[in-house]
Every structure is written in structure tokens, then in C-alpha cells.
């Protein structure tokens, strides 16, 4: 045990060096955790060589392999080298700072360290840099924030770093907004704290002030208020409590005030710069029918979702039968046993002082506010002035769970040190909590997800964990919890090598060749659902009009619908596809974010379409105005590229 403790202390001491070595080795090996091999279902690779090396491809993660990663590849393949506005996506192009934080050659990229690899190393190694820098930095940040919360408890901080980073909600949404915002939130809190702690050291305070500025910019530029708003309030709680804890030792010099002013000036400069180059795109985004016009007033979740994390252990191994795995994933937490314990800790003034409890009290209070919003409607005016009008219950649930994780980490450190509760009390609390968990599972749609025997196993595990937490048995709790977190978190995303799933095929090579010879020519794809092959085209450097638009390409839609009769259909974030007809162009809203455009052959000229990617013959659509010249056919994969000729 002593040797193990010494080993852990050495790992903690050299954690930044170890993380750097792992990062270099993994990037050099061209590894990432993308589900890009899903593309091989649509376009099989040459020589049948797969990019997947280990794990299960997550086809459900379309936001990653079909939306976000192709956006990043489109930046790398653009002849203008990571432009702010990528004119290969749609008629008007897309602002790529808005588009899932894609890499851009702009000052705003300073706040996105996981994107630097694309600019330095290109698309393959850049994607590896993205995944491993973000993963390792999040582990390090989570350790630091837990170290702050626990007032220096190293074993619990190590557990916390794994707990947060490998929580299913973070891993299933790692490349999207939730992964980004958890990263930036923790970066803001950690740099804020260490700036205050290092006011006497000039270099450190400048470093942490600059890092704080970048973290604030990065947090803002994610532009996902459904998670940003509650995290902002949680951040205020952290900052106020940390400041109160440190205030007696704080002495601000004139130079410190100047550093703070310059830091906020740097934040303001970046955000003003972003606004000036993105003003038009932002206005379009804010005025969309979905999600821009949505006003939330709460009360839209069923009660059982508070403990939805109970099905987390099964998600990497079995698809959910109620909602998709991403939507039901969450963070393990122990809010329910602690809601019984913290009031008694407050009452127990013999062993604990109120200053020891203020962090936990504030977190519980904020968690209760979030619970109220999830289950009860509030007046619209109150929702708007608090900005909760932008917050959906599903996304607030994740922030509530993260709040409860921090509460659980804090409580584990405090209870294991003070041991205020008896075994009998701990058993009673654990039994009541397990009963609540039982009711949650067997009175919700998830009761048929797996057979009861598996649920009883999970209930037994959480009964034991709740008991160990309340009774203060830190070591046993840490071991069991760490095993469960690693097994159910590290197995979410596959280990992939390179980006060949997009490029190691004849179709890719032909699209690249044709696009390089015709860089301004418009493409569309037909015969596919949700513009999947449209994304493939712009990921390979073609200028494609379908695929995914983070905000509507109004110039394109005006060409097809000059009187805006279908504005409510296309004025939204959307996956969209084209199919051809010899009748009048029409629009279909297949889902809140999925559009099908049934395009009149004669309207191809309005869009100046020059190339069409299809999987069936277009000869029957030829007429006196338009004919189709077949310039490439892949007989194995049934893809045909047509050149459109207008008479």
C-alpha cells in the first residue's frame, strides 16, 4: 500500500510531463477517438483497410463523424487555408467560428488549443491533436478543480479527474458543446483560483491571467446558451466562494490591477473582433425558427431523469430503447444521499464550522434551483431576465449532474475526514436512496432496457457506494467508483487511426481532382438521407450546397423560394438533402433539424449546379433545358458523378 501511494504521488508530481509524453506519442501515432470509420459504410475503402483499431464505432454520433469532423476536414481542404468563412459550404459559405468551433486562421484560435494541431500539422495529425490535447487537458483541469474543492486531497482529486473526464455524458458528447463547455468552465475556475493564489509571483500571475482570458473567450465562443447559462451561474458560485476563502490573504498591487484590466481588455478585444467579423451570421442564427426562437420556461422533464445515470454502465454495450445513447447519458452523482446528510452536517456544529460547509450548501441550493426549473414552469419574464429562456431541460440536466459531481467530491473529502455519521445512519440513508433508485428504474421507460437482474446489480453497487460515501470509507469508495467510471467511460469512443475513412477511396480521389480543376463549381448530392454525401463532398474540398448548415444559407433559399413561403422549414440549423423531380420544387421538414428539398430539374440553373453526385441514373431527368454527362462511375460502390450541361 505504501509503495502504491508513493507511485501515485510521483505520478501526480510529474503529471504534466507524463501527459505531454502521452500526447506526443499518441499524436505521432496518428490516433484519435473519432467514429470516422462509420463513413466506410457509405464509401468502402480501397483494399478493404479499415481505420478502426479498437472499440465500437458509434454510428449514433452523427454530430461527430458526419457533422463536426467533416467541417474540420473542409477547413483543412479549403484552398484558402482555414478561412473564417468557408465558401465551400453552401452558396454564401459558413462562418466556421460558429460551426462547432472549427479551426480557423484567426486570433480567436488562441483560445482553442485543441485546434492548433490542424494549423500546424494538417487534417490527420490535427484530428489526433484535437482529441488527445482535449482529453489530457480535461483530466489535468479536473484534477486541479477537485484539488481545490477538497482542499488538497490528492486521492480524491485523482478520482475526480477520472469521474468528470470519463463520465458518459462528457464522453458521448466529447467533441460537441458539452465537452467544450465543461473544459472551458474548469479552465476558468482553475486559472481564476491560481491567479489569486499567486499574486506575489509576477510570472505566474501573468500566466494565469492570460490563461483565464483565453478560457473566458473559448467559453463564450462555444455559443450554446442551453449549457452556458447554468454553467455561468455555477461559475459565479465557485468564484465568490473561492474569493471569500482567500480574501484575508489577498493584497492587490497597482500592477495586479493593471494585469486584470489588460486581461479583460484582451477578452473584450477578441469578442468585439469576433462580433464584427460574424455580425451577419450571428443575426441569422439568432433569428432562426430552430433553435433561435425557442423560449424555455421549464417544467418539461419527467421526474425519473434525475437518476438517469443508473443506466450509464450499459450504454457502451447496448443501445438505449427509449432515446439514443447520447441523450440519456449523464454523470454519476450522489445528490440524493447527500441531500439527507448535508442538513445534519450544518446542524452538527461540534465537529464542523459553517465555513467548512458553505461550498456544499451553495451547490445543493443551486442543484435544487435547477431541479425546480426542470420540473416546474416559471413565468416567461423571469425566464428571460435570468436567461433561462435559452436553457432546455435536457441540457440543464447535465449541468445539474455536474453540480452534483462537485458536491459529491466535496462531501467525500469532508465526510471521510470528519466521519460524522454512524454505520446505522449510513445504512438507513443508503437504503432510502436505493429505494428511490429502484422506483426511478422500474417506473420509467428504462425498465425494459435491460433485464431486471442487471438493474439489481447496479442498485447493489450504488447501495454500497452510498454507504461508503456517507460512512466516510474513502479508499473503498474510490476503488469501486474508479473501476466503474473507467469501464463505462473509456469504452464509449473507439480508437481510430488517421482519417483514411474519408480519403482512402476512389470517390474521394475523383472529387478532389474535379474540385481542384473547378474550384468555384457548385456540387449537390442526391439519393441520400440528410445530406450525408454532401458532407463527404465538402470534406473532400468540393463546394457543396447540401450537407449541414449550422445556420441557414438564406441566399441559397432565396434563389429557390424568393417569396419566403417556406421560411419556417429552412430557417433553421439543418441537415438537408436534395432529390430531383420534374415538378415544382418543394420543401419537407422531416425533423426539427432535417430538411429534404425536392428540386425541380430546371432550378438547378438557379443554383448554378455544375456537378451532381448520385447513386442512380439521372438520364430520365434530362430535358430540353438540362442534360447530364456522366464523368465518373464507381461500379463497386454505385456512385456516379454527373456534369450538368445547360442548353
Task: Describe what is shown at a glance.
The protein is an alpha+beta fold and 647 residues long.
Explain the overall architecture:
This protein has 647 residues and is of the alpha+beta class. The chain contains 24 helices and 14 strands. Helix 22 links the parallel strand 6 and strand 7. Pfam families: DUF7654, DUF7657. Keywords: Membrane, Transmembrane, Transmembrane helix.
How is the secondary structure organized here?
Layout: H1 2-13, H2 15-28, E1 31-32, E2 52-54, H3 62-77, E3 85-86, E4 94-95, H4 116-121, H5 123-149, H6 154-165, H7 168-172, H8 177-197, H9 202-221, H10 225-246, H11 254-286, H12 325-328, H13 335-347, H14 354-375, H15 380-385, H16 393-418, H17 423-442, H18 452-471, H19 474-489, E5 495-497, H20 500-503, H21 506-517, E6 522-525, H22 532-539, E7 543-544, E8 547-549, H23 554-560, H24 567-570, E9 574-581, E10 586-591, E11 594-600, E12 609-614, E13 626-634, E14 639-646
Parallel strand pairs: 6-7, 6-12, 9-11
Antiparallel strand pairs: 1-5, 2-5, 3-4, 8-9, 10-11, 12-14, 13-14
Helix pairs in contact: 2-5, 3-22, 5-6, 5-8, 6-16, 6-19, 8-9, 8-10, 9-11, 10-14, 10-16, 13-14, 13-17, 14-16, 17-18, 18-19
Mean pLDDT: 91
Estimate the strand proportion. 5-15%
Give the strand order, joined by hyphens, for the main sheet.
Answer: 7-6-12-14-13
Q: Which blocks of ≥5 consecutive residues have pLDDT under 50?
A: none
> Count the helices. How many?
24
N/C terminus separation: 82 Å
Structural class: alpha+beta
Largest sheet at a glance? 5 strands, mixed
Number of E-type strands:
14
Shape: globular
| Relative helix content | 40-55%
Tell me the radius of gyration: 26 Å
Amino acid at each position: 500500500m505504501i509503495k502504491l501511494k508513493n507511485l501515485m504521488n510521483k505520478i501526480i508530481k510529474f503529471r504534466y510531463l507524463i501527459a505531454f509524453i502521452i500526447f506526443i506519442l499518441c499524436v505521432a501515432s496518428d490516433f484519435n477517438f473519432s467514429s470516422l470509420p462509420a463513413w466506410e459504410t457509405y464509401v468502402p475503402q480501397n483494399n478493404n483497410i479499415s481505420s478502426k483499431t479498437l472499440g465500437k464505432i458509434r454510428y449514433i454520433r452523427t454530430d461527430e463523424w458526419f457533422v463536426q469532423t467533416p467541417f474540420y476536414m473542409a477547413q483543412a481542404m479549403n484552398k484558402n487555408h482555414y478561412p473564417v468563412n468557408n465558401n465551400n459550404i453552401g452558396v454564401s459559405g459558413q462562418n466556421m467560428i460558429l460551426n462547432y468551433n472549427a479551426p480557423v486562421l484567426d486570433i480567436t484560435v488562441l483560445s482553442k488549443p485543441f485546434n492548433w494541431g490542424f494549423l500546424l500539422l494538417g487534417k490527420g495529425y490535427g484530428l489526433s491533436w484535437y482529441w488527445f490535447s482535449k482529453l489530457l487537458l480535461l483530466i489535468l483541469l479536473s484534477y486541479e478543480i477537485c484539488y481545490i474543492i477538497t482542499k488538497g486531497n490528492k486521492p480524491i482529486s485523482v478520482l475526480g479527474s477520472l469521474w468528470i473526464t470519463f463520465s458518459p455524458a462528457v464522453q458521448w458528447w466529447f467533441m460537441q458543446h458539452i465537452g467544450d463547455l465543461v473544459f472551458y468552465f474548469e479552465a476558468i475556475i482553475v486559472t481564476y483560483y491560481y491567479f489569486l493564489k499567486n499574486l506575489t509571483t509576477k510570472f505566474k500571475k501573468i500566466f494565469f491571467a492570460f490563461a483565464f482570458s483565453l478560457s473566458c473567450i473559448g467559453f463564450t465562443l462555444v455559443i450554446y446558451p442551453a449549457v452556458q447559462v447554468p454553467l455561468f451561474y455555477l461559475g459565479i458560485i465557485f468564484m465568490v466562494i473561492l474569493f471569500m476563502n482567500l480574501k484575508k490573504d489577498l493584497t492587490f498591487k497597482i500592477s495586479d490591477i493593471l494585469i486584470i484590466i489588460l486581461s479583460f481588455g484582451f477578452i473584450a478585444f477578441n469578442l468585439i473582433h469576433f462580433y464584427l467579423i460574424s455580425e451577419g451570421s450571428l443575426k441569422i442564427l439568432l433569428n432562426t425558427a430552430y433553435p433561435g426562437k425557442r423560449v424555455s420556461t421549464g417544467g418539461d422533464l419527467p421526474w425519473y431523469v434525475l437518476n438517469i445515470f443508473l443506466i450509464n454502465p450499459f450504454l457502451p454495450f447496448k443501445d438505449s430503447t427509449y432515446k439514443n445513447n447520447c441523450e440519456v447519458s449523464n454523470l454519476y452523482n450522489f445528490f440524493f444521499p447527500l441531500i439527507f446528510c448535508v442538513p445534519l452536517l450544518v446542524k452538527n456544529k461540534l465537529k464542523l464550522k459553517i465555513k467548512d460547509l458553505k461550498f456544499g450548501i451553495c451547490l445543493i441550493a443551486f442543484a435544487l434551483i435547477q431541479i425546480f426549473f426542470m420540473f416546474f414552469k416559471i413565468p416567461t419574464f423571469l425566464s428571460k431576465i435570468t436567461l433561462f429562456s435559452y436553457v432546455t431541460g435536457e441540457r440543464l440536466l447535465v449541468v445539474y449532474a455536474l453540480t452534483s459531481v462537485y458536491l459529491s467530491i466535496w462531501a467525500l473529502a469532508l465526510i471521510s475526514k470528519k466521519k460524522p455519521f454512524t454505520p446505522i445512519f449510513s445504512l438507513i440513508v443508503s437504503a432510502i436512496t436505493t429505494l428511490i433508485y429502484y422506483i426511478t428504474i422500474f417506473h420509467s421507460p428504462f425498465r425494459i432496457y435491460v433485464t431486471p437482474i442487471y438493474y439489481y446489480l447496479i442498485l447493489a453497487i450504488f447501495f454500497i457506494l452510498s454507504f461508503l460515501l456517507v460512512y466516510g470509507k474513502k479508499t473503498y469508495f474510490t476503488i469501486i467508483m474508479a473501476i466503474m467510471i473507467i469501464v463505462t467511460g473509456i469504452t464509449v469512443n473507439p480508437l481510430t487511426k488517421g482519417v483514411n475513412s474519408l480519403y482512402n477511396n476512389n470517390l474521394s480521389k475523383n472529387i478532389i481532382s474535379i474540385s481542384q480543376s473547378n474550384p468555384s463549381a457548385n456540387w449537390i448530392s442526391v439519393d441520400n438521407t440528410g445530406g450525408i454525401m454532401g458532407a463527404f463532398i465538402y470534406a473532400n474540398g468540393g463546394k457543396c450546397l447540401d450537407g449541414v448548415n449550422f445556420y441557414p444559407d438564406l441566399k441559397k433559399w432565396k434563389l429557390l423560394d424568393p417569396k419566403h413561403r417556406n421560411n419556417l422549414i429552412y430557417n433553421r440549423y439543418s441537415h438537408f438533402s436534395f432529390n430531383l423531380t420534374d415538378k415544382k420544387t418543394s420543401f419537407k421538414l422531416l425533423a426539427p433539424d432535417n430538411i429534404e428539398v425536392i428540386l425541380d430539374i430546371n432550378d438547378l440553373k438557379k443554383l448554378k449546379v455544375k456537378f451532381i453526385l448520385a447513386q442512380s441514373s439521372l438520364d430520365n431527368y434530362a430535358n430540353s433545358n438540362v442534360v447530364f454527362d456522366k464523368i465518373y462511375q464507381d461500379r463497386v460502390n454505385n456512385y456516379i458523378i454527373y456534369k450538368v450541361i445547360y442548353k
